[in-house]
Every structure is written in C-alpha cells, then in structure tokens.
Amino acid sequence: MLASVNTLVLTGIEANTVRVEVDILNGLPAFEIVGLASAAVKEARERVRSALRNSGYEFPNRKITVNLAPADVKKEGSHFDLPIAIGILLASEQLSEIDELDKYYLAGELSLDGSLRPVPGILPMALHLTTIDNASGFIIPDSNGSEAALVEEVSSYGLNHLNQVIDLLTGALIKEPEKDRPIQSDYAMVPDFAEVRGQESAKRSLQIAAAGMHNVLLIGPPGSGKTMLARRLPGILPEMTREEILETSRIYSAAGLLNSNKPLINTRPFRSPHKNASAASIIGGGRVPRPGEISLAQNGVLFLDELPEFSRDVLEALRQPLEDRVVTVARAQATCTYPARFMLISSMNPCPCGFLGSDQECKCTPLQVQAYRRRLSGPLLDRIDLQVEVPRLQYEQIKERKSGENSEQIRIKVTRAREIQAKRFAKLPYKVNAQMSTAQVRKFCRLDEESEQLLKNAFTRLHLSARAYDRVLKVARTIADLEESKDIKINHLAEALQYRSLDRSYWA
Questions:
Q1: Tens digit of pLDDT for each residue in 291-322?
Q2: Residues in CB range of 151: below 8 A, 6 or more apart
C-alpha cells in the first residue's frame, strides 16, 4: 500500500515542501530511503524501527521504500523521522486513513523510545507554510513549540511523543495550537555606556554609527577601551521590530542555535569571532552551506577585534557583503543566499607592539609598522565610514567619578534619528543612511557652496575615492539627523571629514 505525508526541507534559510511517499510490498525485508537523502536522513531507518516498536506498533517485515520528493533537492536533517514513521503506519494499515492529512506538515526527530526531539530550522519552515494555502497544521516537537508560535498565521502543535502525534491526527487528542508570547527587546544583559570613562570622541563616533548603521574602525593602544566600547554598542541601538526579530531568529533557527529556553533573538546580536576563524565560518559556507558570522550578526553588530590579524581571505571576502548586504554561497548541490545587514565594528593597534603614538615607548621599526598597517587593503578601508583614534586614558580620567550619558539616554537620540531616516526612505527598501544609493546621496545630501568647497579641498588632500566621497556625505547626513537638522551644515560635514582623516596620510 502507498501512503504520503507532508514535511519540509531547508536550503540555506529557505524552506521547501517535501512529499514523503512510503510504499510497502511483499518480498525480502528491506528499508530503502531514496530521493537524494543525506547520511543523517538514511539513519532514520534505525530510529524509526525502534521508535515504532517501543510505541506499541509493529515494524513491517517487508520491503519498504521511502521516496522524498522532489528527488532532485538534497535532503538534510533528522526531522524526516516523524513523517517517515507516520507514513509507514499508514502504508502498513496500522493506522486507518486520516482525514485531511494533506493539510498537515510534520517535522521532528524520533528517539528510540518514540519521544520527539527538537530539530533546527522550525521557524523558517513555519514561515514557509504561510505561503501555502491549504496548510492547516504544523506538528513538531514540543521543545520547538515556542519557536513556531512566533508565526501566528500557522497553527503549530508541539507534542512530546509519537503516540501523541497519532492521537492528534486521528482526533483522539484535542490540543490548542501554540500561542505566541509578546515580543520585547531585552537590554538587561547589555553593558551600559555610563561605565566607560573618558573617550568622549569614541563614544560620539559610536553614537553616529548607531544612528546611521555605519561601519567603524577603532585604533588605539592595548587597554584604551576599544573592546569595552564595542561591547556596549548593541545597548544604544533601537529596539528590534517584530520583522527584525523574526528575520534574525530565522537565521539562528536554520543554524540550530535556538532552543526552548531561547526561542527567539529579541536583542541585537553581537558576534565576536576569533581572529583564527576561517573564511567559511565568517562569510558562510561549508560542505552543507550554513550561515556565517556576518549573517548571524543580522540587524546587529559584527565585532572584529585586532582586524589586521585576520587572514587576508577573510578580510577581502568581507568587501562584497559590506556593499551588497547579502552573501551568496555557491556549492555543487545548491546555491544559498543569506542576508548580511550588519554593522562592522573593528579594532586594531596602531603598530604591532601597540604603543606607537602613546606615552609608552614603541619598539617597532618603520618597516614593521608599515607592513602591519598594509594588511588592510584600500578597498576594505573605503567601506569603513568612521576611523576613530582611541588614546590611552590618563589616571585622572580613570578615577573620574562623574559618568557620562547612559545607554538609554543615547538610545533615545539614536532612535529619533532612525525615525527621521525611516520617514525619509519610506518608499525605499532600506531605512538607514548607510544604505543609500548614489542617486539617493545626490538627492538627500546636498551641500551649500561653503560646504562644497570644504569637501573639495578634503577630497584632494586626503585622496578620497568616489566611494569614500559618498560615505562622507552619508555620515554628515546622519550627524545632521542626530541634531534634527533638515540640511547638512558645514559643521556636520567637518565632523564627518574628521573621521576620514586617517585615510591616506595614516596608511601611507
């Protein structure tokens, strides 16, 4: 007898429908899974066999063929266990025909005793079901229930055991769909800016970066507070919208980084990979394509400490995502596109020993300093909007008891600037100044004659590229937005140029 059950498969962070077809025939006992199944999927044979027996059902001692259609799509993951088990019970007539089975979609890993274990990718699967007209129910492990409940348009049922799934499908169990919980950003675990002593220029630059989603490079000796400043940046970013929370949580779900204790990402991500990380782990990829750190930092911050120490491959691979805000990973089996809309915050020492320009003696030779700085290419520096010096603190600054603005006070200003930008770009797909196209820069970043002359002089003296020219104007526009100024004034432009002053003179 032939039976069919619906499930889904992930390709990158996108889900697609899969039909699990089970056929049982008389003949020598066999259990074959076809349809471009991975090793993890084929291992379902032993899990399903034990789960059925330990749940009070017989495993057919006949020839069983399971086809995962469409057959030209690679199948990865252990969530096929549940639909395969239900298909075998139907095909072996241990279950009678289930009404409206076509409207249900099943996903879950089976333990040997028949209990359901959580699987990655439930949120993107639930989001895909919103595009299917006749999808009336999504049956999943109970541990994934709160994750699926974020998609209110889909009725999701979190269950603990195979027998509960059978009871729900046959009508013996009445269960209400999982209910969504209110979503609210949580800043309790984010360090506060008020804890940072001194470094007013660096604080100001991070405020500008947060307001316009600009990239920043912090340059200073060891212990000057570069990492401390960077870790506090998520606390001054605006609260995440529901769309941003779902978008970011979908990536974490596909990567298997969500669980019942953390069903969603409701605070801005802060990712800080080690300098020895490979290009695949930062950008994304691998034999089975997975999102990298730049995608896990979606709508948040990617912090690269000691930027010149990262491999050349990693640094150059960052150039395209910083410009396009997406990254495409091409493999023989599939091509996956991941979002990469993040703020790059990086830090470095001024020289290999770290003490050049400070009150401590630098032991580096000019050639060593030059070689160290040139690890960062010109095209990469062009994509960093603000280059900020973070000097070593003096004793008086460290002992200063008076604290500056806290994160909440700064966040209010940043949020107001973001609201101005959202209104400006209401009809466009992006909502921040850093993502403006060249045409939008010409439209929204007009200068008066005096400012134009200042920019012309700076362009010549600093040898700015066309990209750097646009980015100076974008930063000036953000500074004007922070002051709620309709026009870019000369003081806004002068401050923006101040953050490019390290360009050619510094790296020569």
A1: 999 999 999 999 999 999 999 999 999 999 99
A2: 123, 126, 127, 129, 130, 246
